[in-house]
Amino acid sequence: MNPLILYTITPTLGLLRNYIKYKRCNFKTYIRTPLVYLLFHIWFCLNGCNHTIWKTLIFERWFWFINKSFISYKNNDYMKNKEKYIEKYKLEYKNNKNNKNNKNNKNNKKVTFKD
Question: How confident is the model over 39-63, as pLDDT tens digits?
Fold first, then answer.
């Protein structure tokens, strides 16, 4: 199969998903995946690797997973959104002020996590 077809499937599906979810198209987020594909593809070709196309597709996904995880950790996203998670998923934390509120509502699922 032609690598250009394979390299356009993921960004196009991502663009479609973002349009469905957010009702907007962002060219910057669309073009970044093919650019990362290009970098990995060139790197694998220069190193003489076999199965360059499949490795490029897999490494690109790993790259964005690690990149987004690092950014989320750096921005402390979990602590910023903790209250939203407590309300949305009906979570209880051992050392949380909201435990009193959650214990009063017997319909809540009780899930306990350590801080």
Answer: 999 999 999 999 999 999 999 999 9
Longest Cα–Cα distance of the chain, Å, equals 63
Separation of alpha carbons 47 and 49, rounded Å: 6
Long-range contacts of 38-44 (CB under 8 A, 24+ apart): 41/3, 41/7
CA distance 30 to 24: 12
- 0.85 cut: is pTM over it? no
The Cα-based distances of 75 to 46, 62, 72, 84 in angstroms read: 35, 20, 5, 16
92: β partners: 112
